[in-house]
Specification:
- The protein has a single domain, classed as Dimeric alpha+beta barrel (Alpha-Beta Plaits).
- By secondary structure, the protein is of the alpha+beta class.
- Helix 1 runs antiparallel to helix 2.
- It is flat.
- Strand 3 and strand 4 form a beta hairpin.
- A 4-stranded antiparallel sheet has the order 2-5-1-6, with helices on one face. It has a two-stranded antiparallel sheet with strand order 3-4.
């Protein structure tokens, strides 16, 4: 089954409170996991995302969609990156757990809809 594993937090001002060694360790962990997922054939897609201050939010206002430069979601829990993997649920949770154990930021594991059988 395909799962999206999403990393939240760790960008902008939040990173300023971490040591350079911690940041280097996190980057090494993410690159190592990314390589392992690719080598195992589990990786479908993935990438990091720019800081939320670089985002544009589109909201429905006064009857139409309006792009704005904010307000944004809480930076401490903004989406920082993701992987799409083809693995069992247990493996997806194992991948997320490895990152959470280091970063202490939450990760969300969500099954992709194209894997849900239609109900009859």
């Amino acid at each position: 089954m395909k799962y999206m594993i999403m990393l939240f937090g760790g960008l902008g001002a939040t990173m300023a409170t971490r040591t350079p060694e911690w940041v280097a360790g996190m980057q090494e962990l993410m690159m190592t996991l990314d390589g392992e997922l690719r080598e195992a054939g589990e990786w479908i897609a993935g990438d990091g995302l720019m800081d939320p201050s670089q985002a544009t939010t589109v909201r429905f206002q006064n009857g139409s969609p309006v792009p704005t430069d904010g307000p944004f979601a809480e930076v401490k829990e903004s989406l920082a990156g993701y992987w799409i993997v083809e693995v069992s649920k247990e493996r997806a949770l194992e991948i997320a757990s490895q990152v959470v154990a280091y970063t202490e930021y939450p990760m969300e594991v969500r099954q992709m809809m194209d894997n849900v059988p239609p109900e009859m």
